[in-house]
Design brief:
single chain, about 260 residues, mainly alpha, 3 helical TM bundles of succinate and fumarate reductases, two-stranded antiparallel sheet, 9 helices, about 70% helix, binds protoporphyrin IX containing FE
Length: about 260
């Protein structure tokens, strides 16, 4: 059997694929969080950054395709591995119920994985396609004029005065709705526990979880996941509670100060 045949057909190969795609997805969610935290800075920050990403055109689509492939392979490997292990358990005969810790964790992984998938579908409809909370979608908001040149890693990428999509106002207006914020908070908490278990399994699969390392690996995973959770909870949490207010003069500040009838839906 060829190497790619082994990867897709054997259970060891599929576990390896889950680890590699999991690694890619953890990289994405971490980078995405760092980018999103710019919402607490000047509106130029997140708006300039989002405009730069969109200006990448073909390269952005290449990254999107890699992410989509990673999600599809990750879910496919999880489903087929589960079906295989059920078949194997069935062959051992009914009445023999092996209630091991691993099976509890994998049940949780399946459930939280499903919620995360539902969250991604909602999130894309919310912020990328603008088919929910449509009044607050970036394409419906007045363009934002950059207050200054925007630099990324020292390179000027967006010019002062350039009209860009108002991602800043979209995020503030989106999370001013308690139901939207609540859904994000629940989904992100489940995603964090999914990451915690996935992080350790990933290292186990690639053979980097030895007895000597296991304790350290657990600590690194817990610290990483707590930092990830804190960053992600901060965005809807601080906006909804009013602890973070949109900058004066932005569409979000004007709309949130307006009478209740024009509140974001
Ligand atoms: C509080 C948490 C989050 C905030 C504030 C947030 C914010 C955003 C925003 C503003 C966009 C649209 C960017 C644009 O089109 O200009 C976006 C896109 C996206 N987000 Fe999030 N996000 C959050 C959490 C997540 C999580 C946890 C995931 C994955 C599990 C995720 C996955 C994505 C994906 C896949 C896209 C589409 C990227 C693309 O256009 O190619 N986001 N997010």
């Amino acid at each position: 059997m060829s190497l790619s045949g082994n990867l897709f057909r054997t259970s060891v190969g599929r576990k390896f694929l889950m680890a590699v795609t999991g690694f890619i997805l953890i990289g994405f969610v971490t980078g995405h969080l760092v980018g999103n935290l710019q919402v607490f800075g000047h509106p130029d920050q997140i708006n300039g950054y989002a405009h730069f990403l969109h200006s990448l055109g073909g390269a952005l689509w290449a990254v999107r395709l890699v992410l989509l492939a990673a999600v599809v392979i990750h879910v496919w490997a999880a489903v087929t591995l589960t079906l295989d292990s059920r078949k194997a358990r069935g062959a051992e005969g009914y009445g023999v119920r092996r209630w091991i810790r691993a099976s509890l964790a994998s049940r949780y992984m399946r459930l939280s994985g499903l919620v995360v998938l539902a969250f991604i579908a909602y999130h894309l409809a919310h912020f990328t396609l603008g088919t929910v909370q449509t009044d607050n979608y970036k394409a419906q908001l007045a363009p934002y004029a950059m207050a200054a040149d925007f630099h990324l890693l020292g390179f000027p990428v967006v010019e002062k005065g350039e009209a860009v999509a108002d991602v800043y106002s979209m995020v503030f207006l989106g999370f001013a709705n308690p139901w939207v914020s609540l859904f994000y908070l629940v989904a992100i908490s489940l995603l964090t526990v999914h990451l915690l278990h996935g992080f350790e399994s990933m290292f186990q699969t690639i053979g980097w979880k030895s007895a000597t390392w296991a304790g350290w690996l657990r600590r690194v995973a817990v610290v990483f996941c707590l930092a990830y959770l804190a960053g992600n909870v901060a965005i809807p949490g601080l906006i909804l509670s009013g602890a973070a207010k949109p900058a004066a003069g932005t569409t979000a500040a004007e709309r949130l100060a307006a009478p209740a009838s024009s509140d974001p839906r």
